[in-house]
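TICKET: design request
STATUS: open
ATTACHED STRUCTURE:
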């Protein structure tokens, strides 16, 4: 007489799932450290006469974040250029830190490329309120040398809050 086979005990092998989960945890921990180190939020100044500008009106632009140096020296600042570039792959955002001399060459190159394409380049300056004016002046001088006439300062609208927030 034929006996039916005994059902095999089925078990779930969790080792690959644990390996994948550990890799994901490590990835997200490292990625969050990198993002938090590079994306230091800016404390923009307040301006009572500030006006809202529609992003569509900005057109071709380059944004320059001027933030305090990580060294804590107020005579130093970091210039982070955020550039919106249209290429074969579509719109891309490029972000890089430049030195003042490199900033001038970069702005002149971008302005020249825009003029060759028949476009007008605008510069959006986002300066932290802790940064000294001499560092903002570096960006303004670079815009002047590159013949960028349309400059927009990014600020918070309204009076400075009393609590200093």
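STATUS: resolved
RESOLUTION: sequence designed for all positions
ATTACHED SEQUENCE:
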């Amino acid at each position: 007489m034929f006996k039916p086979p005994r059902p095999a005990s089925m078990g779930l092998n969790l080792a690959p799932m644990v390996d994948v989960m550990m890799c994901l945890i490590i990835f997200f921990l490292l990625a969050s450290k990198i993002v938090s180190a590079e994306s230091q939020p800016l404390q923009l100044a307040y301006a009572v006469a500030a006006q809202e500008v529609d992003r569509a009106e900005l057109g071709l632009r380059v944004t320059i974040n001027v933030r305090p140096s990580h060294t804590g020296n107020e005579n130093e600042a970091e210039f982070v250029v955020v550039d919106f570039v249209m290429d074969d792959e579509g719109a891309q955002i490029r972000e890089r830190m430049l030195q003042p001399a490199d900033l001038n060459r970069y702005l002149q190159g971008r302005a020249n490329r825009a003029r060759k394409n028949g476009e007008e380049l605008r510069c959006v300056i986002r300066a932290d309120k802790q940064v000294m004016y001499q560092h903002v002046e570096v960006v303004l001088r670079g815009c002047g040398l590159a013949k960028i006439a349309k400059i927009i300062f990014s600020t918070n609208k309204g009076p400075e809050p009393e609590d200093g927030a």
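CLOSING REMARK: The domain at 46-157 is CATH 3.30.420 (Nucleotidyltransferase; domain 5). Confidence is low (pLDDT under 50) at residues 35-39.
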